[in-house]
Amino acid sequence: MASKKFAVLDGLRGLAALLVLTRHTEAYWAAPSLSHNHSYLAVDLFFVLSGFVINHAYAQQLREGRLSAGRFMLTRFIRLWPLHALGAALGTALVVTKDLYAPDVWVLPLVLMLLFLPSRMPEAGHGLFELNPPGWSLFYEMAVNLLYALTHRWLTHRVLVAVLAASGAGLVATGLYNGSLDVGFTWSLRSLAGGTLRAVFGIFLGIGLHRLYLARQRRPRKAGPGPWALCAAVTALLMVPRIEGLGSTVDLLAIFVVFPVCVYLGAQASVGASSVKLFALLGLLSYPVYVLHVPLGSWLEGALAAPLAPYAPLAGVLFAAGLVGLAWALDRWFDQPLRRFLTRVTAARKASRPA
Questions:
Q1: Per-residue pLDDT, 132
Q2: I need a labelling partner for 23 at 20 to 30 A (CA). Which of 33, 124, 241, 243 fits?
Q3: Total tally of structural domains belonging to the chain
């Protein structure tokens, strides 16, 4: 069961990552509106997809005792760490080469970031991960993964519904209070609470959707929207401009209706032979694009010694295309080899321990 590939879910994740890229590189596209749409909700979609895939891959092993909570967390750490560490290194190198902060400002944040832990940099901004801002969502990802690993044996359907009801109510309150769900990445109680709620609700919603998917596997399937229609729906929602009068309406519609429907239907949808490689590529590039686009954009402008905005939108097209190619290369020659090495090393140490 864990070997099944969800091609449409890969496509959704890849599209969401590309939209996050455009959000943070709006100057490259000569489109200021890109940072004023709902693309920040891509993180919520990532959380739902993560919960679905994690439950698919690990729930049975955890339930049967073949995988401990510690080993599960180590597996998740190895899966996310290489590219996360590369992003942290690129961000730190940028700080060092530009002599932005003294070592006593960035050394501890770097060490903590490599452990997926946030830190304060008093001389910088108020972000959880100033060295590479997109890393903030990985902190919540790992924290909720730990929560799942420690509580999976008590996570009955009733408990899961209760968790979703409580965190969902918290998100409604957050959205109404803040006017959006664009929170979680800065040092404030309100932001940290909002980020926690986003991660808990999204990941446990993904777990629930996977359980529903398994429960209905034996039932006859009805024809539903095709994979391209689901991709179009997610893309359109993330591109909807923020309108003052709407408040958090679009945000709440996304997390409670659009994302769960698209993920559930996407898990069941099939992709034609002509498109399956494209969807696989989108899934492959999603994580490196998300975690590397900010420091690489800064490094590129530094290397060119000039801002890229005057060359928009060609600058955006070339940057995105180059990053896609780099993501493919990193997956093949950096991320996968390093993950295999770390897996072998940790497995060998486990085997060498006395019973």
A1: 95
A2: 124
A3: 1
